[in-house]
Amino acid sequence: xxxxxxxxxxxxxxxxxxxxxxxxxxxxxxxxxELSSVFIAWFVVMVLLQIRALSHGPGxxxxxxQWLRAPILVALNAISLFFVLFHxxxxxxxxxxxxxxxxxxxxxxxxxxxxxxxxAWLMVSALVAWLVLGG
Amino acid sequence: MEPAFxxxxxxxxxxxxxxxxxNYIKDKLDGSLSFRWSCRMGICGSCxxxxxxxxxxxxxxxxxxxxxxxxxVEPLKNFPVxxxxxxxMSGFTAKLSKVKPWIIRKDETPLSEGEFRQTPEQLDTFKxxxxxxxxxxxxxxxxxxGLDPLFAGPxxxxxxxxYNMDSRDQGSNERLDTLSQHDGIWGCTFVGExxxxxxxxxxxxxxxxxxxxxxxxxxxxxxxMPWGGR
Amino acid sequence: xxxxxxxxxxWILFGAGGVVAAFLIPIHLFLFGLAFPLGLLDxxxxxxVLTLARHPLTRVYLFILCSLPLFHxxxxxxxxxxxxxxxxxxxxxxxxxxxxGAIVGTTVSAYLVWNLS
Lengths: 135, 230, 117
Prior knowledge:
heterotrimer; B: 230 residues; mainly alpha; Ubiquitin-like (UB roll); Fumarate Reductase Iron-sulfur Protein, Chain B, domain 2; 2 domains; 3-stranded antiparallel beta sheet; 35% helix; C: 117 residues; 0% strand; elongated
């Protein structure tokens, strides 16, 4: 498939910079969206630590909660929340593109898929909060 | 030898597009300037170039959109440059043949059985993807293609999907063999810029994500029911 | 006839993980990562959390909450390393790190969730 360069090695091909993603706002937004996965992984690590602390008794759990109050942890989690929300929003907005739902022969507008997703998201979040906070 | 820019001063006319300016340069200032163009009305796909860093059809980009500021015209990004503003597109045409963008039939029906009939709804499932004019703006916008010239790319995959979705076609499996590969649909990370720059609203990014879902379903089928014939 | 890639399997995991992450992580992260540490809301006490967590349904829920998003991270981060840093030639190492990491994380979460007593 590299036929074009085989026969014409003199033809100029610009080398792609390592920082190509800084080249335009859409590219940067894309890379930030992809990097949100790192904060998702951090969240999982946090939950695993929490479950471990839970298993080791009230003392350990208290220590864990103390640790979470440290300013650097709060800052990290605030940033993580931003990226996790960024993931959720881009996910709900892009998911209809893959699904291409058709109803009665016509393509359903993306918003018809996205809106119920957001609604479900709110309901699930409310349910979790209710269960955790003592419903 | 590194490429270099050359500055030209052209008259500003309210109804001129960048292509008009390029033709003025070729006619009056520098006859050696080489660039592709043909229909000058946004349907042939020949005149794709970078205008101020964005992939555009120069026949559809008005000078007035840039005020009186200098306009930078460069050959389409991510392709080898043959000369001036002309890029080498044989890589793309090879990919296009590979995805078999034509009706594939397993069983050829005789002429006596008449034509294939298709409802407007059936047409609607693939019509958008058939609007591609092979202008390659999407390849200029795609960072994955920029990094890996072996990536099939937005237009080729969208055109494959156009035929996959065509009710007359029976070639999905053949195309899936070619495209369910790392340099096929799985190279795409849904950046989405291809759809943004497409002048014909083909939405290649949407085509590729639909293709991924279809490929995933096929994979599940073959995984859960490996005895099924393909 | 070229053999088709097994990438669809990884993509399905990526998608499932993305759905779980999108729906569930924001509220969890908000509550346990910000609201409770900052005192915006009263944190449930140890006994309550333990009772909640011990329930078999919660254990399954926690396992899913930990495992699937990790596979989502693995797949996405792998491609970010390929394209963002252009280190595709290290792809064996990257795959080991990403999917291996996800498998390790999944195993750890299974172990922890099992031992919640």
